Automatic annotation (TrEMBL):
SUPFAM superfamilies referenced in this protein's UniProt entry, alphabetically: Concanavalin A-like lectins/glucanases
Organism superkingdom: Bacteria
Organism encoding this protein: Caldilineaceae bacterium SB0661_bin_32
InterPro entries: ConA-like_dom_sf
Protein name as catalogued: Family 16 glycosylhydrolase
Organism lineage: Bacteria, Bacillati, Chloroflexota, Caldilineae, Caldilineales
Amino acid sequence: MTRPNVYARFANGLSPFWRQTTGGSAFLRTGASGLFLVNEGASKHAYTNAQIDDYRTLPRAHFPWRPPLRLSLRARFSHDSGHLKGTAGFGFWNDPLRTTGLRRVALPQALWFFYSGPDAAMPLTLDQPAWGWKASVIDTRTSRFLLQAPLLALAAPLTRMPLFYRSLWPAVQRAAGIAERTVPAAMTDWHVYTIDWQLERVRFCLDGALLSEASHVPAGPLGLVVWLDNQFLQFTPWGKFRWGLVVKSEVQWLEIDWLAIETAEGSTRTA
């Protein structure tokens, strides 16, 4: 399938290319300065989400994006890491929990810049914090993970003990293709974020400088998502699972100045 380049400035609104989601007190706004995803405030009783994506009505097999390609965008947030509540970010994933559409639940695949607030706890790597603003990759839909999954499930109770956790978790991390790196920059400042998704590696760049690189990458197809919401997830290797909503007393937003997807397969499409 031909995948044209995509270029969006948002000054003239959102084109039909984008599927829009607004829930709770969230809304989308466009103008000369770009696209704003805004949450005016949220409670623990209502999910609040501002989102654009390009896959909402599609089955996973028809999600638009496979490597090789490069996603670049210029963005900033209203609050810095630790002060922004909920989750937010941009990049590619397979929507494993079927947050949109009528697809079945699936094992996760993602490569994106992902933020989770201090209410979250997802210690997916030994050398990175369990929450924060990160460049992140996960690819559990591979033969290496599926073959090891039964053994990993049997070993999971041992990870409750710190010694066994530090011994066993690196094997799980490799099998699931997990790689994370904290983004060492203020979220409130303008930055150009880049995901260079190739067949055998992915590179994350910040303002043109290499931030991290991983050799285990999803093959796709994946969809592009940009979002800001008020949820948190606590998911630990030792079996803790908790999902919930956080209160946002202040207005919070994500601003996108421009967004581009560069492929090698055709002309540029204005979105």
